Amino acid sequence: xxxxxxxxxxxxxxxxxxxxxxxxxxxxxxxxxxxxxxxxxxxxxxxxxxxxxxxxxxxxxxxxxxxxxxxxxxxxxxxxxxxxxxxxxxxxxxxxxxxxxxxxxxxxxxxxxxxxxxxxxxxxxxxxxxxxxxxxxxxxxxxxxxxxxxxxxxxxxxxxxxxxxxxxxxxxxxxxxxxxxxxxxxxxxxxxxxxxxxxxxxxxxxxxxxxxxxxxxxxxxxxxxxxxxxxxxxxxxxxxxxxxxxxxxxxxxxxxxxxxxxxxxxxxxxxxxxxxxxxxxxxxxxxxxxxxxx
Length: 294
Fold this sequence. Notes:
12% strand; alpha/beta
């Protein structure tokens, strides 16, 4: 956290939009700040960004995505099982929101028009749980379906004895649909032809070490990552004692950084003297993150 993920995500989105690509930038971080970067109020539907043609932005409501999952189990005694879907691991809410985005891109004309979608994700730990969640839910929901198969006859018998009719204790269609959606999200994450995960970092040792672990975890999850953005790089300034000390420390850290991220493309962004907000500042950041060819 605090490395400038949102600013850099917005800057990348601006670069794509300026290149003529219809771009949507989406915040999946529960603590949204994307609207602050664009200096406008965002919600759960795409809004055109003032001052940048071809760019839309939105801040997902994870709870709304979770509600849209629609997984529910009916019948007597199912209250405790239903509560499982209220106590799933951190990252589940954001994963449900991503499921909705995948559905939109595949079937909703309002979203299918976008050529690029940039996700501004939550900090490292939360994002790692999110990325691992499709596999977890695939296994979890598979076990739920197995439970249904084994207990189906018993639950129907209990329902009949208690006068509840023959209602299916598990909503099979909802569970299977959620499982299919999570597999789609997992496959999308791992498809290098469609997806790239960019690691955001700053040049201090704690952040670098955390980012190295993130890259390792991404590789273990088969998530394509080939680029690292290094934000808040101190320009040389011998007239400022603090700046000079900061510059010296960062230079030493870059020796480790270059070794740690060997094989990855590293882009650096200078430490700006003011907040990166609005189209003009985002374009200045994008010029350093993704310099034009030549």
